Structure formats: structure tokens, C-alpha cells
Amino acid sequence: MFVGKHTTISNLASILSSPVEYLKGVGPQKGEMLRKELEIATFEDLLHHYPYRYFDRSKLDKVASINQNTEYVQLVGTLINIYEEGTGRKHRLTATLYDDTGKIELIWFQGAQWMKKSLRDHERYIVFGKVSFFNGVPNIAHPEIELLSSETAVAQMQPVYPTTEKLKAKGISNRSFAKITQSLFEKVRPGDIPEILPVDILSHYRLCSRYQAIRWIHFPDSEEHMQAARYRLKWEELFASQLQIAQLRLQHTIQPGYKFEKVGDHFNGFYKEHLPFQLTGAQKRVLKEIRHDTATGKQMNRLVQGDVGSGKTIVAVMSMLLAMDNGFQACLMAPTEILAQQHYQGVKGLLENMGVPVAILTGTVKGKDRKDILKGLADGSIPIVIGTHALIEESVQFANLGLAVIDEQHRFGVGQRARLWKKNERAPHVLVMTATPIPRTLAMTLYGDLDVSVIDELPPGRQEIKTVHRNEMRRAFVMDFIRTEINKDRQAYIVYPLIEESEKVDYESLLAGYEQVKVFFPEDKYKISMVHGKQEAALRQRNMERFVSGDARILVATTVIEVGVNVPNATVMLIESAERFGLSQLHQLRGRVGRGGEQSYCILLTGNKVSNESAQRMKIMTSTSNGFVIAEEDLAMRGPGDLYGTRQSGTLKFKLADIVQDSAILEQTRQAAQFVVSEDPTLTSPKYAAIRNILLQQAQQSHWSKIS
Ligand code: ADP
Ligand code: MG
Description:
The protein is of the alpha/beta class. Adenosine-5'-diphosphate binds at residues 277-280, 283, 306, 308-314, 435, 459, 566, 568, 595.
């Protein structure tokens, strides 16, 4: 039997597992193409290959209505003047479409040859695309275009399928897709697409049936039905993911954990005698939550969100002391060597006077040092260890690990978090700390299994960082400003973008920038240090140290300093080519200053001309310093895939749902999932059998299974 990407165990015997080439109009050759290009191997795969938009006959524009503000248009007209022009890279195909109000040019830069073959002169077409203007004259490049034959004219809403250039070249046009799907529906009966959601959920949330939804999403007879179909399918997608999260969460709550029964001398002694400042209300609240969690006898899984500089480290340190008071070891894991080092220095400094041994374990700790530390961890003589990923390696054994703190979580995969849980008989308590404020919807999907604490208060005495946007023409003024700050004995960061794809170019511009900085700040008067990812770790470390110690006044750097680095005396953050950074990244960078008592500044330097979107980003940055607002804006502007490196993780990969736009559905499915899991934790009742099956299959393919 043929197994396609959607083939499920339960329907192996069903018609849905038939190879797609059995369909009328497909055949072996096209079947092979579909499999290669779109992973469509079976009837079922094709059923789930949804259109991403529709030609809606009820919504037509006229050529004459196009003006400078027009974005997308849908036109019906006659095609004439189809010809190729230019050679080599300038080669292209143009055609003219006219209706009763005027004419517009259509252009193809790619696939001109086969496009030319498929277009017919003097025929009527429906066309959809983005309008652009060239010398004030509108045109549409790479429009979606479909012949208006008598047969297609029947449907009001015509599906437009995702496809590839290769498929189009092989004659599998959008129209053939629609035809293939049509012949599929001639073979598939409602009984072949059984319902998977229980009836009470269907009726409570007013969802249409699964068969109906899949039919309507391909061939809606109205806008309403199309919406109903998409709604239902999105619901199902989000529900499946929320069910998994709800189950995981439930598992945490029943998972026995170590009981931290007392608050003892380490915690109290530190609080009374060694704490260098008063805790903020928010810090106290979060510590209380942690104390409560760890005293229940269940395993804690808590996420602490706090904007940059909100003081998460001290919360981690005091939690580790709490673990010690109860006879356990604790570890603090950071995403980079620099951060681990910095945490180590900081934590050691805080605990030195109390005689608490603190060790560091990273990839660069080798030889005898490493041996000693491994031994100390295994025999329990080292109660607190700070490190990087090196901590979760198999070779690291703990005598009695009771708490693991993970700083800057978004750089750790969920799988890595799971490995920590195996470091003791029972899973240690896990405290995840992130400086990237996570919008609620994202948190619900990414960290839905964690309890969340928020440090929503900055330590007293902090002044808001003044943020300005300047362009290249003002560079000299900007440098003068930095000079006055440095002459007041402050320090400054100058940051350059370094993005992998263009690494070489970026590297050169960093070096050029460094030379330029030296022109403004002659080396005999100003000490400058430089750090970037291409340096040897040891050199980078030394250069960083020179800035941290105050010896160097200016740090020229790439984004390696993005997270966590703490130099309170630095008051200026100049970000070069700021238009090339994302919002969250800009916010993280800005958070490197304003860490002491002095007024700090963040200068966003861009080219003289920037795109609308970049201008928008600069505006957001200069108008707010609230990390949550910025994260929401970032999510809205970029979409979840780009953020937090989750693109590869698969956690946010939905076919239809978008966690930003569909947050209302997300909320519903979360509630429904919590209800279902509380009623039937293992989903064993017959009404959940179908959805359980689907979850099991998904679990096999994803990381979720690894966690438990
Ligand atoms: P982040 O949340 O970004 O990790 P840190 O823990 O590095 O922040 O703290 C930032 C700075 O604020 C540190 O210098 C720290 O000593 C200081 N700090 C933390 N909590 C307080 C407080 N309650 N009062 C004064 N300063 C504090
Ligand atoms: Mg930190």
C-alpha cells in the first residue's frame, strides 16, 4: 500500500491512501512531479493541499480604477500583444490586458518561454496581482492568470493553489490543479472523510463538519462558506496543538518533584546580609511563586519573563540557594560562553563571602579543571554550577540536581530542556528565564506547558533610555555627541549588523566602520576594543574584558553582544545600519545601556533613504521602551516564523492558522483543550478516539514525544 505524507494508520485501507496518479488527468509522470515538488503522493495529500486564495467573481476591479494607492487588483479583460523582449537576464514576456475602461501591462521575468506558450491571444482572462508603477504607468508583474472558459465561469469562487515554477512549466497549471481536485471529489465520499471532533465541540463552537470544510475550502460556493471552512480547519489545527500542550501540562502537575520544604540559612543569610540592594516588588513576587512551586512536591516548570535589566539574575541566584538549603545542587545554563562567564563572575561575586563554592563548566574548560569539576558535581561537593550546553552532556553527572535555571531560553531547544530532566531520578525543577518578552499568543503555543511569572518592574533609579533615529548625513554630529559622553568618563557601544548570508560583506563593513571610528576617535586619545564572531574565543574574551573593565572606552562590535552583557558605565548604544535589524533585536541591543544610574542614549543610524517598513520600525523604537509592546509589533510585522529562531522548531508550523491573526481561535482551542484534558486526561473515551489517533501520529513526527 502506498504511504503518503498524510496517510494515517486508520485510513490505510481507505480510498484516501490511493496514489495520486490514479486520478483522472494525473498519470505516472505528473504524479511523480507532484510528489517531488509538493510532496503530494496520495489522494489524502491532495485533499490537504489547500488553495491559498480564490478568484472571486463578485469582486472585480476596472483598469480605470487603478491609482497610485492601489495595491492588489483583480481584473477581467482580453489579452493582446503577447511578446518576448530583451536578452539574457533582461529577457521577459509582456502582454496587454484591456477591459472596457483601459489597458494595463502584464510582465513575466521568469518562465517567459512556457508562459508564452500557455497564453492565448485575444482570449478573455481573469487576472490577479500586485500593481506597481513604472514612470507613473501601472503594470502587474507575475500575475495569477486564468483563462475564462465557459466551464470555469460557472464557479463564483475559483481556488488558487500553491504551486511551483517547475510544475507550471510541466503543464500543471492552477487550472489543472482545480481539475484534478475536482475529479478527486468525484471519487471521495463524505464517509471517507470522517469527523474527528466530538459533536459537543462542533456545536458549541459552531464548526462545520470536516467533510464540509475540506470540500468548501477547495470549492466554496460563497465567501461565507469559504470562511466557515477555513475557520473549522484552523480550529482543528490549533486544537490539536493545544491538546498536546494541555496534556504535557497535566503531566507536569502530576509528575512528582523534589520537595523544597524549608527556607534555610543560605537563602535567609543571603537575603539579610549579602543582598546588595532591595528587591523590587516584582522580584519578591516571583521568588514567592518559585518557593510555592518547589514546596508542593510536584515538579516546577516556570517561565520568568522580564525585560532586559529587570533583574532576573538575582532571582535565579536566590532560587539556587533555596535548592541548597534543601540539600540539592543547582545549575544555571546560559546560551553563550560570554554570558556563562559573566554569570559566573557575577554569581561568584555575590556568594563569595558566604563561602558557597561556585564552578563554571563550558566547552573551553578542559583537562584537569574539567575533571575536578565533573568529580565535584558527581560527589556533590560543588553545589552550584554555571555553564553552557556543556552542562547537559551525557558525561556530566550530578549527585543530586534539584534545580536547573535556563537563561535566555529562546536559544535552547525544547529537546535540550528535556535532556535536563534526565539528570536526576526525578526531574529537577526547571526555571526558564527570558529577556525576550513573548507575546501572549506566542507564549501559549511555545510555552503553554509552563507557568509564567512576569517581572514587570525595573529596579528603582533607572532612567528611560533616550532613543533617536538619525541618518547618515548627521554622522558627524552623532560622533561629536558620543565624544562628549566619553569625555564625561562614560563608555559607548557601536554595533554593526552581521547577517550570515552576507557575512563577508558585513565583515568588511565592520572593519571599514572600525577604521572610520578611529578617524573620529584617534587611538592615542581613545581606547577602542573590537569583538566579532570571527575572532578566536580567547581574543574575543580578552577584548570584551577590556571594555567591561573600563579600559577601552568604545566597543565596536557585531551582535555577539546582543544578549545579557552588563556594563553599567556604558551610556551610548549606536546601532549602525539600524534598518537592517529586527525590532526585538534592536530592543535587546538597546537594553545593553541604561544599566547604571546615568542617562543613557540609543542612536539608530540609518541610510538617508529607508523603506516604509524600516521607517515604521524606527518609529516604534523611538516611541516606546516597553519590551512587550515591541514584541507584539515585531510579531505582527514579521510573523511568528522568523522570531525566536522557531522557524525550524516546527512548533509554530501550521498549515492555515496564524497565531497572530487567529488569536481568538487560539484562545477558544486552549479553553476547549483544557476542558477535554481535565475530563479525560488520556483521551481514552471513544469520542476522542479519532483526535487521539491524529495526535499520536503527530507526536511520532515531532519533539513532543521526546519530552515525556
Ligand atoms: P536581566 O533581567 O536583564 O538579566 P540583571 O539580572 O542582569 O537583568 O540585572 C540588571 C542590573 O540590575 C544588574 O546590575 C543588577 O545588579 C541590577 N539589579 C537587579 N535587581 C536590582 C534591584 N532590585 N535594585 C537595584 N539593582 C538591581
Ligand atoms: Mg540576564
